[in-house]
Design goal:
Blueprint lengths: L6 H13 L4 H15 L2 H13 L6 H10 L1
Helix pairs in contact: 1-2, 2-4
Amino acid sequence: MTATVPSECRMANDIARNLAHLPGEEAAEAVAGHIGRFWDPRMRARLYEFVDAGVEGLDPLVVAAVKQLR
């Protein structure tokens, strides 16, 4: 059986990968800015739930971005 990665986690990781070239805190701010501007509130809420649950495979930039968004 294969586990599926929730779409919010996959998309957030993609954003983090694309912005990882920025210095640490700046990268987290850029990820948070993108998610805050372009994601529907329901998508953000689901991402927060996944971060709170400690879902495996989330990029550390995503976790840092969620902390900034809250």
